[in-house]
Design brief:
With 403 residues, this protein is α/β, with parallel strands linked by helices. The chain is built from 13 helices and 23 strands. The strands form 7 sheets. An 8-stranded mixed beta sheet has the order 14-13-10-15-18-19-21-22, with helices on both faces. Strand 18, helix 12 and strand 19 form a beta-alpha-beta unit. It is globular and about 85 Å long.
């Protein structure tokens, strides 16, 4: 999609990744967008305003007052005139200020005045990115409706390897195009996906768990994102990489998964609970490692809170709620009963009897059942293909309920 005539303001912060913005500006200008660059004072230490002014064909703005002309750079007008404000690279410092309403430079004043959508593309070192304060600021900004362009993984300026690299200019341009392309069926929608197992502690070194790999849930998160949704993935323990542009919230136990899903569910239009959550957890986990003794060991278990049923009780008319059922007997009967009891729109039935389906593998064979009782059996496919089938059904349902 052409960006012709779109007014895009780019806020550049003080980080080494600022050099990539020259390429991004050039790409956007080639798409016939109107680009206005704003820079924090520290950003000018990493790339010159002259470079970005030359590429954007507009003066770069950094101060409230233009000292040459003694005119005011009106942050209110900048925020009102933009069709999109992109903060890139968004440093940990600027993210914190945005999240808490601080306003000590022209870029932040423009952000607080903006009536247009805001995208932010973080870039920082691995430890800074993973720090709980940064992750909380990311969640806070997303709760305001701001759109995250997730950082990539690779070698960082410090020499560490991991997440924190600014998304590549071509990738950012594509995200902007997707945003302006109203054809994406889930554009503007927020999705919550759970995936993976839970580990229920017996003592500090042992747990009760299951064989879930998280592959199906991760594939669904990626599929929903590809259709334009802003996706939060609540993940139990797994070694899988986070899907591109998906926000991941790691948990361990069923209780932690309940708390995380409850926190995100109200703001979500789409909820897909594909995690294999433990039904029971040790009633009194030991504080120290249980030593091996002669004879048997008895562990008292208590029921965990049913996350899917809890979300079903809270479900609103605008939400699409999808659950999973892994059955070993009376599959169809049990799945339909679960769908009704938990107030679901769809349930995805996995059968342990089907070769190539179930935990761990890269393929799956599922049956989709909707609340009217309609049954659709899908052929054995890759989990990515199954995820796209499920995402397409969800997109169609969202279109219907929002018509």
């Amino acid at each position: 999609m052409s960006l012709k005539g779109k007014n895009i303001a780019i806020g550049v912060c003080g980080g080494i990744a600022a050099y990539k913005i020259a390429s991004l500006v050039r790409l956007l200008i080639k798409e016939n967008a109107n680009v206005q660059v704003l820079m924090t004072p520290d950003a000018k230490e990493f790339i010159t305003p002259l470079t970005l002014a030359t590429l954007s064909k507009r003066p770069v703005l950094s101060d409230y007052i233009n000292r040459h002309t003694e005119t005011w750079n009106n942050h209110v007008d900048l925020g009102l005139n933009a069709d999109l404000l992109l903060i890139a690279p968004a440093t940990a410092n600027t993210l914190s200020k945005m999240a808490h309403g601080a306003c000590d430079n022209l870029l932040l004043a423009t952000y607080l005045s903006a009536k247009c959508p805001v995208m932010f593309a973080p870039a920082m070192d691995l430890d800074m990115w993973l720090h709980p304060s940064t992750q909380e600021n990311i969640k806070r900004l997303q709760s305001f409706g701001n759109i995250l362009i997730a950082p990539g993984s690779g070698e960082l300026a410090s020499g560490l390897i991991g997440e924190g690299r600014l998304a590549e200019p071509e990738e950012i341009k594509q995200q902007i195009q997707k945003f302006f392309n109203g054809a994406l069926p889930l554009a503007g929608k927020r999705a919550l996906v759970s995936a993976g197992p839970t580990y229920e502690a017996i003592d500090p070194v042992r747990f009760i768990g299951n064989h879930s790999s998280g592959k199906m849930g991760y594939a669904i998160a990626a599929a929903l994102q590809s259709l334009g949704a802003t996706v939060t993935l609540v993940s139990g323990p797994t070694a899988l990489p986070t899907p591109l542009h998906v926000v991941r919230h790691d948990v361990t136990s069923a209780q932690e998964m309940l708390e995380a899903c409850s926190a995100y569910s109200e703001a979500s239009d789409i909820i897909v609970m594909s995690a294999a959550v433990a039904d029971y957890t040790p009633a009194a986990p030991a504080n120290q490692k249980i030593k091996k003794k002669e004879g048997s060991l008895e562990i008292t278990l208590k029921k965990t809170t049913d996350i899917l049923a809890t979300l079903g009780e809270r479900k609103t008319a605008r939400q699409t709620l999808v659950g999973f059922a892994l059955e070993t007997e009376n599959e169809m009967l049990n799945a339909k009963d679960k769908l009704k009891r938990k107030n679901l729109d769809y349930i995805v039935l996995n059968s342990m009897q089907d070769q190539g389906a179930g935990f761990g593998g890269d393929t799956n064979k599922v049956t989709l059942i909707d609340r009217s009782g309609k049954v659709e059996r899908l052929a054995l496919k890759s989990k990515a293909a199954v995820a796209h089938d499920i995402a397409a059904v969800i997109a169609a349902h969202q279109t219907i309920i929002n018509a």
